[in-house]
């Protein structure tokens, strides 16, 4: 590794630590978060993304969960990127993955060691984003995937992500409901996938349009759980919009609209 490359990685890590300190005042947690995410293998993945020109800078944490951290990145020309890094140390996460991978015909002969599973999970999110994007569903545009890291379009500005529907209900809920119903149909009929965890928590509003995110658990419509997951998505969407006084489509009728029956 060249001295220049090492300097860029060190610079990235310093920026991450500075941003984490602003978000988390517990010093032991700060160190644990940085060390947990940036293990040696992940550092090499980030280096490869920097070296290839896909990523120029990694600025800090945008959101943090048990499974992954999302960082605000930029390209050399200043374009914002979202860099999602899956935690390779999450044993609980590993246990929950199997039911979404096994039975999906797109992913076969997957090794069951933790790093292999998480790499497949990242590939799965990237592929789901790509297929949804091709079906004209508004999702973050997928940019790159390598090992446990997914790079995608940043939905928001200057490192501040767009609000979710939960955080900021839409000004015109009837219109947004119709758009989301259209998205559900396109996901099923064109992308041939079911989101599986759709709710007001993982739909953002940006520039007047809803944007669906967190598609890692999404499965092929051939998956044994696809029908159950679709019905759960429909129930969640109807529940949220009915609370906003939208006249929603009855669930069974909506199900037939989406699957084409």
Descriptive account of the structure:
This protein has helices at residues 3-23, 27-37, 40-52, 91-101, 114-134, 173-191, 226-243, 251-259; strands spanning 57-64, 68-74, 80-86, 142-146, 149-153, 156-157, 160-161, 193-194, 203-206, 209-212, 219-220. The protein has 261 residues and is an alpha+beta fold. It folds into two domains: 3-160, Phosphorylase Kinase, domain 1 (2-Layer Sandwich); 162-259, Transferase(Phosphotransferase), domain 1, CATH 1.10.510.10. Strand 9 and strand 10 (209-212) form a beta hairpin. The termini are far apart. Residues 18-35 have low confidence and may be disordered.
In terms of topology, how is this protein built?
Blueprint (H helix, E strand, L loop, with lengths): L2 H21 L3 H11 L2 H13 L4 E8 L3 E7 L5 E7 L4 H11 L12 H21 L7 E5 L2 E5 L2 E2 L2 E2 L11 H19 L1 E2 L8 E4 L2 E4 L6 E2 L5 H18 L7 H9 L2
Antiparallel strand pairs: 1-2, 2-3, 3-5, 4-5, 6-7, 8-11, 9-10
């Amino acid at each position: 590794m060249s001295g220049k490359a090492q300097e860029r990685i060190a610079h990235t890590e310093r920026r991450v630590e500075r941003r984490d300190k602003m978000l988390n005042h517990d010093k032991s947690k700060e160190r644990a978060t940085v060390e947990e995410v940036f293990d040696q293998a992940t550092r090499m993945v980030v280096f490869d993304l920097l070296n290839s020109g896909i990523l120029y800078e990694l600025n800090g944490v945008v959101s943090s969960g048990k499974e992954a951290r999302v960082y605000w990145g930029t390209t050399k020309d200043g374009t914002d990127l979202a860099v999602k890094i899956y935690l390779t140390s999450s044993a609980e996460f590993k246990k929950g993955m199997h039911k979404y991978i096994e039975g999906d015909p797109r992913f076969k002969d997957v090794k069951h060691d933790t790093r292999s599973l998480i790499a497949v999970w990242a590939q799965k999110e990237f592929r789901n984003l790509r297929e949804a994007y091709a079906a004209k569903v508004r999702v973050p545009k997928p940019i790159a995937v390598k090992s446990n890291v997914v790079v995608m379009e940043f939905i928001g500005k200057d490192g501040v992500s767009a609000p979710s529907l939960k955080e900021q209900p839409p000004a015109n809920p009837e219109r947004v409901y119709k758009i989301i119903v259209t998205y559900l149909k396109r996901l099923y009929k064109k992308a041939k996938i079911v989101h599986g965890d759709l709710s007001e928590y993982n739909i953002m509003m940006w520039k007047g349009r809803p944007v669906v995110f967190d598609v890692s658990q999404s499965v092929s419509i051939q998956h044994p759980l696809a029908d159950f997951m679709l019905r759960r998505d429909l129930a969640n969407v109807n529940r949220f919009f009915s609370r906003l006084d939208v006249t929603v489509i009855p669930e069974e009728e909506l199900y037939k609209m989406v699957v084409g029956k």
